[in-house]
Amino acid sequence: MAAKILIADDNQAMREAIIRFVEAEGYTALAARNGREALALALEKQPDLVLLDVTMPDIDGFEVCRRLKNDPRTALIPITMLTVLDSPDHRRYGIEAGADDFLTKPFDERLLRARIQSQLRTKRLTDQLERTESVIVALALAVEAKDMYTEGHLWRLAHYGEQLAIAAGLRRRSQPRGMAGRVVARHRQNRCGGRHFAKAGAVDAGGVCAGQATS
C-alpha cells in the first residue's frame, strides 16, 4: 500500500505542485488548504507523513504541529515544516512545537525526495516497533492472568510509580506515553472490558473498575 502524505499549504500553486510531485513518486496525496483542514485530515486519515506550511491564515503551522504532537493518536506521525524564511527563530519555534524536519521554499526536488524517503523510513520503523510492542503486551497480560497472585501486578506497579511521580512533583500527562504506559493502559482496558479505559472514574485508585465489586 502506498504511503499517505498530507500536504497542508494555503498557497494553491505550491500545494498543487507538491501534490503532483508526491503522486509522481508513487505516494497517495492528501490536501489541506488551512490548519483546520490539516488537523481534521490527520485525525481521519492517519497519514504517514505531514508536509506542513508554517504561514497559514486560521491556525499557523506551528500550532497545527503542536496539536498533532500532543495528541496520542497523531504524535508519532513525522512532520516536515515548509517555510520561506530559513531563520533561526522559525527553526526554534518548529522544534519547540515538535517538528521532525524543515524545508525552505522553494526547494530542490532531489532534496524533497530524500527528505520524504527519510521520514517515511522512520515511520515504518516506528510502526514495526508498535506492532512488536503489541505482541509483547499481549504475552505479558496472558502470563499475568494465569496466576491469581500476579494478576494485577502491572497495574499495581504503574500505580505506585504514578504516586511516586506525583510526590516528586512531576507533571501528570493526560495519556500514558511509552511502552510502560501503554502496557498499563492496555491492562486497564483488559480489566474493565471496555475500549475507553481513560474515562474519568473508569478505574479507581486501587485499580478496580467503576461499577465492579472486588472479589
Keywords:
Rossmann fold; 2 domains; 7 helices; 215 residues
Describe how the helices and strands are arranged.
Blueprint: E1 4-8, H1 12-24, E2 28-32, H2 35-45, E3 49-53, H3 61-70, E4 79-83, H4 88-97, E5 101-104, H5 109-145, H6 153-167, H7 178-192
Parallel strand pairs: 1-2, 1-3, 3-4, 4-5
Helix pairs in contact: 2-3, 3-4
CATH architectural label of the largest domain: 3-Layer(aba) Sandwich
Percent helix range? 40-55%
Unreliable stretches covering 5 or more consecutive residues: 174-180, 186-215
Structural class, please? alpha/beta
Describe, in plain words, how this protein is organized in 3D.
With 215 residues, the protein is an alpha/beta fold. The protein has two domains: 4-126, 3-Layer(aba) Sandwich (Rossmann fold); 152-192, no CATH class. Helices cover 52% and strands 11% of the residues. It contains seven helices and five strands; from the N terminus they run βαβαβαβαβααα. Helix 2 (35-45) runs parallel beside helix 3 and helix 3 packs parallel to helix 4. The longest helix is centred in the middle third of the chain and has 37 residues, at 109-145. The N and C termini lie far apart (48 Å). Residues 174-180 and 186-215 have low confidence and may be disordered.
